[in-house]
Amino acid sequence: MLRSFKISKVGIFATIMVLVLSMLLAACGTQKESVSAVSEKPAETPAGLPEVKLTWYFPGAFPQADQDLIFAEVNKVLKAKINATVDFKPFGFGEYDQKMQVVIASGEPYDIAFTSNWMNNYSQNVAKGAFLPLDDLLAEYAPKTFAAVPKSFWDAAKVKGQIYGFINEQIAARTPAVVVSKEEAEKYKLDIPALSGKLNPDNLNQLEPFIESVKKDFPQKGFYTSLVQLDGLFFNLEPIAGIQIPGAVDFSDSTLTVVNQYETEGVKKYAALMRDWNAKGYLNSKDRISKKTEDGTEAKTGKVSVGIGGSYKPSGDVESTAEAGYERIQFPSGTAHLTTNGIIATMQAINRNSQNPERAMMLLELLNSDKELYNLLNFGIKDKHFKLDADGFMIKEGDEAKAYVPNVPWMFATNFLAYVEKGMPANVWEDTKKLNADALPSQLLGFSFDAEPVKAEIGKVSAIFDEYSRAIDLGVSTEAKYNEFLAKQKAAGADKIIAEMQKQIDAWKTTK
């Protein structure tokens, strides 16, 4: 429902919207909408909707060529549909977290921001009171998306019984993807069947002969991943509040005992292997040390022999990637699990102090139901930045350096509206939904951690992760430095955080 201080401004509009949405809901009945319904365009905007300007912060491989042109074209559609325009605020992956910390702490006005368990941390921001509860807004202004996304997904986004994140539906079943060049895998005889679904810290060194062979012939190529990209899943762990925060449960532990993931043998073995591989020159650490995070440019510039991270996507075992200029093979590192973190990994939040939360929700509904608008924002202008062939597959156009290719279709809205790229199976989105449905559900599925009681400690340990994690990723941290990292976590309140997580999990178990 509209908040009281808004009624005088938009009372007429609210009345009209209630009537329109009542008719829509009556037409739909109580049955869950089909996938095809999600792709339908929303109803025309009622007359008399006051003009507003929204501000939206989000990360990606920005800046992009022609981004201002694309944003202007998107705004033309939004103006016609919901009488709104957006001040788009894109930031590179490496700077987005810090930017949003400043924005939220300063109280700078904005309406929408990307949030997740791995960037602009969802649970921390909810604990700070930064985000607006969305339950009423979803039901009233985004009924199509609210019906289309599985109820279990919305439940996973709840904190203290309320939804604070608008879910971008995509691959929620998670296991890190391992990516190699198809040509190099064949040339150096990488035994993919022996590795697929079986990689872990104990046998990751099985990749070494392949990495060494590629490195010998292509000195610029190395091994690329990070603790954030591995996200605990590589270690068979489910982080409770994101990989940056101490506190995780082993998927096989029926007691749901919370541990500090950085004190486990698996993560320690990984850190030791990174030190060894750095000493052997496999990590290109000198070139990478200046970056806070990997931004995807390494794959495009041919610097990767093996990459691990993100999420394995079905039907994409062999992908033709115009950006990277080569065919790559993708296979899962382990078993796919459906987790709360996998579900909340790509969401939008509305600022608690937004002056136009209703219109912000209408914008999100529009992007999640208007296929042409969604693809415009993600891939650019048809026949300029991409074209569709006779079979409906998307082919990206032009010189990559001059193109619009942010490559974050999972970030803006539901990935299932994206045009399927040439070289990918036509049924990739159907297979993705099937993988979500078939994945092993975590024993913690539906548990949402309330970070409020330990928000001060979480802020401290997050800063410590930022201080030490990059050196661990690049193998330039010594064992002594790793132990210093653990000691600083403990001094900052890691044990208190873990105890609070355990307390909440134990209480949650009694309700199951």
UniProtKB/TrEMBL annotation:
<dbReference type="Pfam" id="PF12010">
    <property type="entry name" value="DUF3502"/>
</dbReference>
<feature type="domain" description="DUF3502">
    <location>
        <begin position="444"/>
        <end position="509"/>
    </location>
</feature>
<dbReference type="InterPro" id="IPR050490">
    <property type="entry name" value="Bact_solute-bd_prot1"/>
</dbReference>
<protein>
    <submittedName>
        <fullName>Aldouronate transport system substrate-binding protein</fullName>
    </submittedName>
</protein>
<dbReference type="InterPro" id="IPR022627">
    <property type="entry name" value="DUF3502"/>
</dbReference>
